[in-house]
Design goal:
- The complex is a heterodimer.
- Chain A has a domain of 215 residues: Rossmann fold (3-Layer(aba) Sandwich).
- Chain A has eleven helices and seven strands.
- By secondary structure, chain B is α/β, with parallel strands linked by helices.
- Chain B is built from 13 helices and twelve strands.
- In chain B, helix 2 runs parallel beside helix 3 and helix 10 crosses helix 11.
- The chains are: A alpha/beta, B alpha/beta.
Chain lengths: 317, 335
């Protein structure tokens, strides 16, 4: 398993965890972020093995986003999940929380041992994140479409309290079908919420199939632009591109427009048969498939994996 | 948080009641100032308060607050769900947001946002549902809220308050500064006569006993307290032993007050501007049934139907929710 010990920077008493002119993006940083993304995938497999069912593929599509946000973009303090000036992270697609929990544990927000009891009776870590139970979860989610509004509220509250932090809201592409997203989009531009950054994980799939077949959302960039947002399109698995973009957005303190990043991703990225099979939303890997998936994620030649039927939708026993 | 459009604190110029000078007529509703003034008082006391509304600042009088504290006021436009979720986000930063819209929209349209983002997330948001019940008269069923108490009462972690008038609303808002739970305030249209003097004693979950009686006790909430008080006075003047409790907090319900009244009176009559299912009557029924009280319970309100349309005062008369109607209901019960 990858090491996690060096991941989090030490707290800085001056509160300057990140300078406005970030260090150049070195090959070492890029390698570290790639390793963190692998860590997200491996931990996702490990935790879902405890629950016996989970959202592997939705989490794999945003593994690089998680890694880049939590190990390069966001301003956080190790062991201080409630630091008032921290950057915030909200998930419209709360079902990818299994990939977030290992990073929160790595930041010292809760003991790593809690991960071992993922979804078991009495454990705070469920399929969807609960802010009242999990330190480091900035907002509860599970009902799709609320997160951008809540993120906007954080921007407005921070403004009144004279705190400047950035608010990152990760949205699913199927979530674009929710009306409340566009209420929030309109309001954020109106409020000049320049420190609000929406990230659309454009992995192309939702429960019932391909997003563009279920309910088309294109032209997506045009929609966000028309709502008054600054739009960036990026390869959501290219940590160098993601880190460069996040750093640029963070440096730009004069921006009045909120920013939307459309991250082109693959649902199930990293495990071939999940990438290829549209049915992979909720599932469970038998031990032999798990071994093959881990080998593939670790970059070893994968033995031929037997594609399995995804578990019945909604079966979360 | 842009400054609102030109907003006058008080109406200027003559208002012709026969005309459709909506904003000015609205801003002359005497009860509307209580909400804004109570919020301003919290600001003056150093509380980190923000207020927001969804295109109804003249209907709820928050224009008055907005004019005084433009940096603490958010105009959300017609996006109630966005407003409620955003209020939750605001509350995570240590600010106490008060967001207001018609009770029908808040309780029904935003029910899930209230449950997930506010109550489940245990954030101290204050929701103000105004023009509750059938107060919007001929605007019709879309604008009536006769389900909101039932809905809000079943959301875990939410305190549900239905003040009788402006002064009690102000007192409840003042008390809310130290209340850790989210709160739903259900209020009328600001034209109800006052029951109380300025800033009456107020404690969440502690009912106010106006009269005690052995024949019957009326338990009322919200806009119904005033007509019930008038009815009870008339009934007592004619020799009947009738009590009255203002049950301003629907949740947590003052069980002791209910049980004491049921001990002392033969009949308990609940009166609410709400469906008789699931609101005040439902809450009182649960307490009485579980305690096995001997007293008879009768629920008075809207009888599981959609209200007719008419001016509000005509509706109150039609549904026997005015003083005369309530008096008749009690006399019929005791006959």
């Amino acid at each position: 398993m990858p090491t996690t010990a060096t991941a989090a920077p030490a707290p800085d008493p001056m509160g300057a965890e990140r300078t406005l002119m970030p260090a150049p993006l070195t090959p070492e940083t890029i390698a570290h972020l790639e390793e963190r993304a692998r860590h997200v995938r491996l931990e996702t497999i490990r935790l879902i093995a405890i629950a016996k069912v989970g959202h592997y593929s939705s989490t794999f599509s945003c593994a690089e986003l998680f890694a880049t946000l939590y190990y390069d973009a966001m301003r956080l303090r190790h062991g201080e999940p409630r630091w008032p000036d921290r950057d915030r992270f909200l998930m419209g697609k709360g079902h990818a929380a299994v990939g977030l929990y290992p990073l929160l544990a790595d930041w010292g927000f809760f003991p790593k041992e809690l991960l071992d009891g993922y979804t078991r009776l009495g454990n705070p870590l469920g399929d969807h994140p609960d802010m009242t139970k999990v330190p480091g979860v900035d907002f509860s989610s599970g009902s799709i479409g609320h997160a951008l509004s809540a993120g906007l509220g954080m921007v407005m509250g921070g403004r009144m309290m004279n705190r400047r932090f950035d608010v990152y809201v990760m949205l699913g592409d199927g979530e674009m079908q929710e009306g409340q997203v566009w209420e929030a989009a309109m309001a954020a531009a109106h409020q000049k919420a320049g420190n609000l950054i929406a990230i659309v994980d454009r992995n192309g799939y939702q429960l019932d199939g391909q997003v563009d077949e279920v309910m088309g959302i294109e032209p997506l960039a045009g929609k966000w632009r028309a709502f008054g947002w600054e739009v960036h399109e990026v390869d959501g698995h290219d940590v160098a591109a993601l880190a460069t973009l996040f750093r640029r957005l963070k440096q730009d303190r004069t921006r009045e427009k909120p920013a939307c990043i459309i991250a082109r991703t693959l649902k199930g990225k990293g495990v071939g048969y999940m990438e290829r099979e549209a049915g992979w939303h909720l599932g469970y890997l038998a031990p032999e498939d798990e071994a093959a998936a881990i080998a593939e994620i670790m970059g070893q030649p994968a033995s031929p994996a037997i594609p399995r039927e995804a578990a019945a939708q909604g079966d979360a026993r | 948080m842009t400054a609102p459009m030109t907003v006058t604190d008080t109406p200027t110029g003559p208002v012709n009641p026969g005309s459709w000078q909506y904003r000015q007529l609205n801003s002359r509703a005497p009860g509307l100032s209580y909400l804004s003034d109570a919020l301003s008082a919290l600001v003056a006391d150093g509380h980190p308060v923000m207020a927001g509304t969804a295109d109804l600042q003249y209907s709820n009088g928050l224009a008055r607050f907005a004019a005084r504290h433009p940096d603490r006021f958010v105009q959300f436009g017609i996006s109630e769900q966005n407003m409620v979720s955003a209020a939750a986000g605001i509350a995570t930063t240590g600010v106490m947001p008060f967001v207001a819209t018609f009770a029908s929209f808040l309780g029904l349209l935003c029910c899930e946002q209230i449950r997930m983002d506010i109550a489940y997330s245990a954030l101290p948001v204050r929701l103000i549902g105004h023009h509750a019940g059938i107060a919007l008269g001929f605007y019709g069923t879309s604008h009536h809220a006769t389900e909101d108490l039932a809905i809000m009462r079943s959301i875990a972690g939410l305190t549900v308050v239905n003040p009788a008038d402006g002064p009690q609303l102000a007192a409840a808002i003042k008390a809310s500064a130290d209340h850790p739970e989210p709160i739903y305030f259900r209020i009328g249209r600001g034209q109800e006569p006052n029951v109380y003097e300025d800033l009456p004693d107020f404690q969440f979950g502690k009912a106010i006993e106006h009269e005690t009686g052995s024949d019957l006790t009326v338990i009322a909430c919200g806009t119904m307290v005033h007509p019930c008080l008038e009815a009870v006075r008339a009934l007592r003047a004619s020799g009947l032993s009738v009590g009255l409790i203002d049950m301003h907090t629907i949740k947590p319900l003052d069980r002791d007050a209910v049980l004491a009244a049921a001990e002392r009176s033969r009949v308990i009559l609940t009166v609410e501007e709400h469906n008789i299912l699931g609101g005040l009557g439902g809450a009182v029924a649960e307490v009485m049934a579980e305690a096995g009280t001997k007293a008879l319970l009768i629920r008075h309100g809207i009888r599981d139907e959609y209200s007719l349309i008419a001016p509000p005062t005509h509706l109150y008369r039609h549904y026997q929710l005015d003083a005369a109607g309530i008096e008749t209901v009690v006399r019929d019960i005791l006959a």
